[in-house]
Structures are given as structure tokens and as C-alpha cells.
Amino acid sequence: MIDLLNDAVWAPFHSVKEPWRFILFMEKGRRTFAGAVALAYSREEVEKWGERMMYQYCHQISASFGHH
Hints:
mainly alpha; 3 helices
């Protein structure tokens, strides 16, 4: 996983490193993160995809990362 994060600092340009900070969300934090992601979607999208999205973020995806 560290190798993946080390490679990610080159995004979006392979020629320039960016000072990304990564946050690993675990346990209850994953649900909080998924809820924050849902805020970026319209009410209609959340009604259609919200449960599936929450399940994916909280159970199917092995790790949830945020960055800024």
C-alpha cells in the first residue's frame, strides 16, 4: 500500500510531485467519509445509489482514502 501512495504523489502529472496528504479511514470513520462523499451528489442520486455507495465504501472497498 505504501508503494501505491508513493506513486500517487506524482498525480496528476508524472513529471511533478504534488504535496498530497492522504488520510486512511477505518471502522466508523469509513461511514463518516462515505456520508461526506454523498453530500457531493444530488438528492436523486443519493436516493438511487446511496445504500449501494455506503455498502461499497464501508464493506466492499478494502480501504477508503481521502486526500487534499
